[in-house]
Amino acid sequence: MKVVIAPDSFKDSLSAHDIAQAISLAWQQVFPDAEIIQCPMADGGEGSIVAVLEVCSGQWREQMVQGPLGEPVLAKWGWLDAKKIAIIEMAQASGIQLLQPSQRDACHSSTYGTGQLILAALDAGAKEIILTIGGSATNDAGTGLLNALGAKFLDADHQILPAGGLALQNLAEINLDQFDPRIKQTQFLLAADVTNPLCGPNGASHIFGPQKGASPHQVLELDQALAHFADVTAQSLGVDQRNEAGAGAAGGLGFAAKTFLKAEFRSGVEVIAELNQLAAKIQGADWVITGEGKFDEQTLNGKTPFGVAKIAQAANIPVIVIAGTLGQNYQALYEHGITAAFSLTSGPISLEDACHNAAELIRARTTDIARLIQSSMLRKE
């Protein structure tokens, strides 16, 4: 028997590696001779670098950068030396988790620190930079990132604009004279599943601004400021990508990446699966086991179990999901390659207890599943 274990992390509980390890140990107790391949996964959000580096034997790098509001932050990024690939999690430098709820400020927060990480990657000799952009604290349309790379955003008096999206309402000129020339020789890949445009009712400011601290009035101001930025960009570069799918990702950083970095957008889980060579690893497998904290109809929006199931389905391999909880309409995933889904808990339990005892619960549920399969195999014999 060959089993591939490819879970995402359980937020606020266990890493993908720890979950894969717990499932593996329990499965081996029932099937001691099974070939088990652990392949920790992620969908482009928090934990993506960890998932890749553990599988690909990559290296951690550190860089002191500016946080969302200019505070110093020691940010980590990943390096795959053999292929000269840098993996940067925007959340490490510009993430919402770096701020207390009372500190969140969509009007003035900046992606400058993420740009500093890109500079560090360029200095290391990166030929390709993979940028995962989940969990941002920003709404500056990526202008902070571009500023770190040498772009200047000026007002009508030729003064440099202050940081943040709101200041873009006063933008008069974009100066790229000192924009890092290495950008043109570097391939950029954005791992993102957000398809929102830059502006409008479904844009970055309206959809994501409130969770980043924007009031209803500030949402309107930010939306107008980002639209003005798109206008000036179109006049300067002769291209307008504000309505492209993903332009509104990460507070509009998607727009900057598409327009100024010529970035390619791909599903986060597809990017991680490719780096981790998941498709090759599941060839000839009898089972694939994946999972996430909450498995529900939102999983259809490109989350890890959905991505893993698509790859397994193409190889006609059954997929088992082990989740912290099964949410609304999770059964919809049965039409997309999921064979069966199981929740960790068998009775009432607090979230705190579930998180604290997750490894034990995972082992217990995995043992139940493995014993069921074992019984079925014995009956066939």
TrEMBL record:
Keyword annotations: Kinase, Transferase
Keyword presence, Kinase: yes
Example of a GO biological process term: organic acid phosphorylation
InterPro entries documented for this protein: Glyc_kinase_flavodox-like_fold (IPR018193), Glycerate_kinase (IPR004381), Glycerate_kinase_RE-like (IPR018197), Glycerate_kinase_sf (IPR036129)
Any coiled-coil regions, as ranges: none
GO MF terms held by the record: glycerate kinase activity
Keyword Chloroplast: no
Pfam family, one: Gly_kinase
Entry's family note: Belongs to the glycerate kinase type-1 family.
NCBIfam families named among the record's database cross-references: glycerate kinase
Protein name from the UniProt record: Glycerate kinase
Organism: Acinetobacter higginsii
